[in-house]
Design goal:
The chain is an alpha/beta fold. The chain folds into 2 domains: 139 residues, Response regulator (Rossmann fold); 147 residues, Response regulator (Rossmann fold). It has 13 helices and 12 strands. The strands form 2 sheets. A 7-stranded mixed β-sheet has the order 7-6-8-9-10-11-12, with helices on both faces. It has a 5-stranded parallel β-sheet with strand order 2-1-3-4-5, sandwiched between helices. Strand 1, helix 2 and strand 2 form a beta-alpha-beta unit. Helix 2 runs parallel beside helix 11 and helix 5 crosses helix 6.
């Protein structure tokens, strides 16, 4: 009798944890995201995930970490996503990619980068077969640098000299590509490197003293963070500018020509989907953006005393008046 009761109790004791374990919900797929800001690009990424069937809080978890104007926080934020055991990390900007690749060599990483060469940076073996735990979307820097020079020459007749505003901490490859493109087009380059918040004002004042007829504003999270001040400084010093981001045109810049950034973030979501469906991240080729936009601010042109050629206006995707 005692033996039968003991075995019955033991069976119940063994059965309860097993039943509880069987009822545990499956772990939802988790996506880590390292972003500089909650902007239209981040919105496009989340919407593309939804379109692919991943609804945050329902059948997926999106762990977003924003670093703002403080890239020094990124190593900690990347390690936090690794500790949460995210299934994939989307890292937007060279700062984010650097932090993520140092934090993990196993979790798949999808990078979005306008400033770097992924092979030269050591993140990928090749564009067609990155290898390891990394892939993403990167610009063709030499081609884009040449286009920026070409468009600014069209807008500013007789342009033979130009300043290039760039981020010294991450933009070496981007600057060199733009400098080479300018020289090939017969345009001399003055370098205006910045490294921290507030450097843009000093850079524009130096440029104004040199009386250069135009400025190419390259990209970086730091430069994007200061876009309003840069646009104001450009108009104050009567300097025509061209940048990679349409956001600069809305802040007073003359022109922008660059990739459709929300579209790049949507493409990043398709990488996430393919990885969740079994693709190996290192087998996914690195993409170049396929959609570019030309935006022209006629209000800024008027303030600068410039007449934009009709042939250039006809090619614009957007004209601000």
């Amino acid at each position: 009798m005692w033996r039968r009761s003991f075995l019955t109790g033991l069976g119940a004791t063994l059965t309860l944890p097993l039943a509880a374990e069987a009822q545990q919900p499956a772990k939802l797929p988790s996506i880590g995201s390292l972003q500089s800001a909650r902007n239209e690009n981040a919105v496009a990424f989340i919407q593309a995930l939804r379109d692919a069937g991943y609804l945050d809080g329902r059948n997926a978890v999106v762990e977003t970490r924003i670093y703002g104007g403080m890239p020094e926080r990124l190593p900690h934020l990347a390690e936090e996503l690794v500790a949460l055991k995210c299934d994939v990390i989307v890292a937007a900007s060279p700062y984010s990619i650097r932090a993520a690749t140092r934090a993990t060599s196993t979790i798949p990483i999808v990078g979005i980068d306008l400033e770097s060469d992924p092979v030269a940076s050591g993140w990928a073996r090749s564009l067609s077969h990155p290898g390891g735990n990394f892939t993403g979307l990167f610009l063709d820097l030499p081609e884009l640098g040449g286009k920026l020079v070409e468009l600014l020459k069209e807008a500013v007749p007789g342009l033979t000299r130009v300043a290039v505003l760039w981020d010294f901490t991450i933009g070496q490859v981007q600057f060199r590509a733009t400098e080479a493109a300018a020289r090939a087009a017969g345009v001399a380059v003055r370098s205006l490197p910045i490294q921290r918040l507030g450097d843009s004002k000093d850079a524009f004042e130096r440029d104004a003293r040199q009386r250069l007829p135009g400025v190419i504003v390259l990209s970086s999270p730091l430069i994007a963070y200061e876009r309003s001040e840069i646009g104001t400084l450009a108009l104050k010093n009567r300097l025509p500018t061209i940048s990679l981001s349409p956001l600069f045109v809305g802040s007073g810049g003359l022109m922008a020509y660059g990739p459709d950034l929300p579209d790049m973030y949507k493409r990043a979501a398709t990488y996430v989907d393919r990885i969740f469906k079994g693709a190996k991240v290192g087998d996914l080729p690195i993409e170049r953006p396929s959609r570019f936009q030309l935006v022209i601010n006629l209000t800024s042109a008027k303030a600068l005393g410039l007449t934009i050629p009709p042939s250039l206006l006809q090619r614009a995707d957007q004209v601000i008046e």
